[in-house]
Structures are given as structure tokens and as C-alpha cells.
Amino acid sequence: MKILSRTYMWLVFALLYAPILVLVVFSFNEGGSLSSYTGFSFRWYGELFRDSVALQSLKNSLFLAVGSATLATVIGTFAALGLDRMRNRYVKGAVNAVTNIPMMNPDIVTGVSMMLLFVALAGILNISDILGRWTMLIAHTTFSLPYVILSVLPRFRQFDKSLREAALDLGCTPAQSFFKVELPQILPGVISGFIMGFTLSLDDFVISHFVSSPDFQTLPLYIYNQTAHNVKYSMYALCTLIIVAILALLLLVNFAGGIGDRTKRRKEAVK
Length: 271
Fold this sequence. Notes:
mainly alpha, MetI-like fold, globular
């Protein structure tokens, strides 16, 4: 039984990661062929960094990822604070359920609904071309927001409420109590939420496809447009860099969460 379970585990890992491994290996193939490996080379990485359209798409993606993650983190942190302060459990449950809807909705439903909203708004405001950079920023912030709340809210629930009460008794205003006492305690959750929002925005395709414009495309849209023609081998290099970036961010999320848990255990041990 033990051998069977290990075999099953390795089979699952092979199915999940074999395509990624093949992509990474052939991004260093000098000959640019998937049928034979002719030698190790950074040729396609050089081609990638000479591709001005790809670099502009990268800048667009980074602008959206950083901007939407920052907005979602700020809004989501204060939304989690409001949820934590709610006293009526029925209202709190209803708000929690509504908050989780964007996470459960299929991306295509969210994308189409956002597109219809922006088109209707353009008609009301008599704007001919509304889709583009700012509509994508709003859409990315919207679908990242629930994930930020989901990362931050448990930190508020774990927070020792007596510390906030002590700060208020010692003369702090509610704002000072939040920024000086609560925020440092929930910071690992805030960082995790930011990185999660950044990651989701960086690799989003479906929602971006519906709310984008021809003059503003992100990396996923650029890669998709390449697949409609002969795929450049520099795309393998681009996908490899994206994989490395996402892996680094996920490791950072786990590292930040681990630091928060260790800090909490040390404080409990001191008590």
C-alpha cells in the first residue's frame, strides 16, 4: 500500500510539473527545436530582451500587478478591519458571503460582467473609448480584493484584543492604536495578501481579455496573440522567467507567513 501511494504521488507530480520542466529546458535550447536538444544557450533570452513589444507588455503587466495589488491591499486591509469590528453576526456572515462571490465566480463571468459595466458607464458618460489601462486596473483590483481580505482577516481574529484596549486606555486614538499596535501584528497577513494580489494580476488572462484595448496588452495577452501565429522560441524564455518570478513570490508568501507564526509562538512562550 505504501509503494502504491508513493507511485501515485510521483505520477501526480510528473503530470503537474513535467510540462513546466520541458518548457524550462527547451528555453535554453540553442537550435530552437522541440524535436532535438542541440546545446545550452541563452540565445532566446537575448531575443526576448530585444523584443520591444514583449518588454512593453512586461511593463504593462508590472504596472497593473503593483498598482492593483497596492489598491487591493489597502482597501482589503480596512475591509477586514471593518468585518472584524462587526457585532451583528448575521450582517457579518452576509458581508463575508458577498465578499467571497468573486472568488467562486468563473473568470469568464467576472470578465464579461466587468466589460458590460464599463461599456454601460461609457454610454452614460458619452465616452467613445473607455476600455484600456484604467479599466484593467479597476478589474484587477476587484478580483484581487477578496484574496487580500481572506489573508488579513484571520490575523485580526488571532490578534489579542486586550492590546488594543490597553493602547486606547493609555491615550492612543483609534487610528494610532491601529497603526502602532495592530498593523505590526497583522503585517504578515498584509504582505501575503499583497503578494497574492500581485501574482493573480500578473498571470491573469481571461478577465484582462474582456476589459483590455488593442493599445494596452499585458504579457498573458501578448503570449496568447503569439500562439495564433508561429510561436517565437523567445516565448519559452518569457514563460520560464514568469515561472521563476511566481515561484519566488510563493516562497516569499510562505516565508512571511512562517515568520508571523514563529513570532506569535515566541510571544506566547514569553507569556
